[in-house]
Amino acid sequence: MATRVLVPSGVLGLGFDREALRRAAADKPDIICIDGGSTDSGPYYLGAGVSKYSDASVRSEWKELLDAREVAGCPLVLGSAGTCGTDGMVEGMLEMTRGLAEAEGRRLRVAVLKSEQPAAAVSKALQAGGLAPLAGAPEGGIAADDIERCTHIVALAGAEQIAAALRTGADVVIAGRATDTAAIAALPLMRGEHGGAAWHGAKIGECGALCSTRPMSGVIGLEFDRSGCTVEPHAEGARCTPESVAAHMLYENADPYILHEPGGHLDARGAAYDALDERRVRISGSRWVASDAYTVKLEGARLAGFQTTSLAILRDARYVANARRWLDRLEAFLAREIPVRTGLEPHDYAIEFRLIGVDAALGPLETRASDPAEVGVLAIVTAASQETATEIARLANPFLLHFPLTDEEDLPTFAFPYSPAETERGPLYEFALNHTMRLDDPMEAFRLEVTEVGRGPSR
User: Fold this and answer.
1) Least C-beta-crowded within 10 Å: which of 11, 88, 95, 179?
2) Predicted TM-score (pTM) of this structure
């Protein structure tokens, strides 16, 4: 018998087609799975332990998903709760669930899976040779001090940890940091469906309707069996095609054929994508390859300083045309003046400029010449304290407003779009861990708790 998984959206807080969700829930899927975030938006959210999504959006959508779970009569699983899956984010989602259950007069059995790692445990694994760097890990390796400086460290749960939570009989699973695919793959694997299909379908469905012709509609259904997986969007007018489904293997994946997960990897080199009709695509031919050792990915972030920004706008045609030359001259000037005026050494601060409209996104990699009417000059100052960062930004202020292209011309006047011109961005975080950690048992680094929330008769 097949296992049917409903994925309402690529992430909680992004939105979904409500009518499509209503119809899909009424069709009684075996499980509803949704992701709660990732570290795609940089280290700040993990470092600070805060969500990137609107609280109002998350609460509204979570209520609708709890309603859909009630209609479907199946478990609801949230992975990477609160964006980065720290313990605090998991507890926040548990409290939200408690409040919504009480307001609706429901009683829910909730399994909470925590992924945050104590620095001491990670240091012990390092000393025992249990950590291995991934591409992009800090050069020169890491030491125990690097681990201690992390404000938050999380391990990415896989299907095994989600399955353990489901085996508790929970109505709702709130998981800390997990791979984007883990929640979707867990139940099909528990039921003995095809391993390659379980992971391949999970990868395709992780972002909801992004694999369809209506990517913003959100709601996707996946049906897993002993030989493959069928993908179908639920929104009116949405279609999955072999091209739209196969293309998602390229999304956030360095290799479009290999996907690494805890305990092994998906090999999609032999995959076939067949259109069953105008809406549905059948995936078959993928393989799951188990690894010799069970490892989980670690993510850690630490404080790297404080930042203050300023934004000026050039509109004079001559300065717009010579923006790069002007900025090179300004950078050289400030490099001389800042140490003289503040007593700071060059290693005490960093000041970065980006020319918006010229090459702000790609920098020296930019190949497209443009003819903008104006250019934004974004100054980003980083220092060990907020006061120092702001002091340097204020020092640069008059020169962002008036600085000539040559010594022999009148001072130009540019524009600040707001006052004060400086904006304190607060703490800056950086990733300090991008490693795998070897486990003797999949649950070794994770904690599972079960509780009942809300009002009404006990289960």
Assistant:
1) 95
2) 0.93
